[in-house]
Amino acid sequence: MEHRKLEIEEMNRLSVSEFHAAEKAPIVLVLDNIRSLNNVGSMFRTCDALRVAQILLCGITPVPPSPEIHKTALGAELSMDWKHYDDTLAAIADLKAQGYTVCAIEQVVNSVALQDFKFDKNAKYALIMGNEVKGVEQTVVDQSDLYLSLVA
């Protein structure tokens, strides 16, 4: 059995226009003060692959266009719908007004392990990822509805 990695041309990736027209998962990724342009690019690429509805880039999180973001996004920054907010709390307020359940991906008291959480297929979720060093800001945690932790 062959286990050769596919070349990018073999992946049957949707074009930008096809991606925009495709049905998306009812998920928004919120990046709370991410510092690394490469991390932002990889989040664009991951969200594109999972057909996430939107990415919200908050605070100091860098925004496209950027050669460093493009290097890891591999063009996904062109297909993904994204918006910048100066303040993550403003993004959360908008998401809650749109009916999203806001989930901080953070290790907090009484958090639920991601693999144990049962997503409601009829709900819309906003997943907040925090800064590489400080994590999700406490004020953002305080405004979240759920707390999911990534554990081994």
Brief overview:
The chain is of the alpha/beta class. It contains 6 helices and 7 strands.
Describe the protein.
The structure is a single chain. The chain is of the alpha/beta class. The chain is built from six helices and seven strands. It has helices at 16-21, 37-50, 67-73, 76-79, 88-97, 138-142, and strands spanning 25-32, 52-58, 82-85, 100-105, 112-113, 124-129, 146-149. It has a seven-stranded parallel beta sheet, sandwiched between helices. Strand 1, helix 2 (37-50) and strand 2 form a beta-alpha-beta unit. Helix 2 (37-50) runs parallel beside helix 3 (67-73). It is globular. The model has no long low-confidence stretch (mean pLDDT 95).
Question: In which range does the helix fraction lie?
Answer: 25-40%
How far is the first residue's CA from the last residue's CA? 30 Å
Specify the overall morphology.
globular
Total number of strands: 7
Secondary-structure element pattern, one letter each: HEHEHHEHEEEHE
Unreliable spans: none
Whole-number mean pLDDT: 95
Radius of gyration: 16 Å
Structural class: alpha/beta
User: What share of residues are in beta strands?
Assistant: 15-25%
Structure annotation, total helices: 6
**What order do the strands of the largest sheet run in, or round the barrel if closed?**
3-2-1-6-4-7-5
The biggest sheet, with number of strands, parallel, antiparallel or mixed sense and barrel status, is:
7 strands, parallel
